[in-house]
Amino acid sequence: MKRRIQITDDTMAQEPMLPLINIVFLLLIFFMIAGSLQKLGPFDVDPPSSADATERDDETVVLWVDKAGQLGVDDKRGPLSDISGLLPEGFAKHPIEIRADRDADGQMIVALLKRLQELHVDKVQLMTAVEAQN
């Protein structure tokens, strides 16, 4: 008994799409596992370097300081006098990480630390770039 397989236009059109969909899903899973999203700061800074490296807490509030002394948190920017308006609600409960440019004024950083102390921030971290070990 002979059996005929009938190939229709729908079968021909759907068949080549399955491997493509599989590849797209594999690529999507790969990028979800391998990639990570990181918040970008309001401006670029060139941090000073140090030989020590510590891990960062996920609840950390990142405070950016550029070389002109302007502060930034997430998308907000402003001077030191507006720091309480820049920081998010409940900021004193979380550590604050300062990412200052290496050319930022040291006296401005000291004034920033004093202001954070006045705002009852208990834990402050200064971010530096890790030096390469030989």
Brief summary of the model shown:
Helices cover 31% and strands 17% of the residues. The chain has 134 residues and is α/β, with parallel strands linked by helices.
Defining traits:
single chain; 134 residues; alpha/beta; five-stranded mixed β-sheet; two-stranded parallel ribbon; 4 helices
What does this structure look like?
- It is a single chain.
- By secondary structure, this protein is of the alpha/beta class.
- It is built from four helices and seven strands; from the N terminus they run H-H-E-E-E-E-H-E-H-E-E.
- The longest helix has 18 residues, at 17-34.
- The protein is elongated.
- The model has no long low-confidence stretch (mean pLDDT 81).
Mean pLDDT: 81
| Class by alpha and beta content | alpha/beta
Strand content: 15-25%
Strand arrangement, largest sheet? 4-3-2-5-6
Spell out the helices and strands N to C: HHEEEEHEHEE
Helix content: 25-40%
- Number of extended strands: 7
Poorly predicted runs are none
Set out the fold topology.
Blueprint: H1 9-14, H2 17-34, E1 49-50, E2 61-65, E3 71-73, E4 76-78, H3 83-86, E5 96-100, H4 106-118, E6 124-126, E7 129-130
Parallel strand pairs: 1-7, 2-5, 5-6
Antiparallel strand pairs: 2-3, 3-4
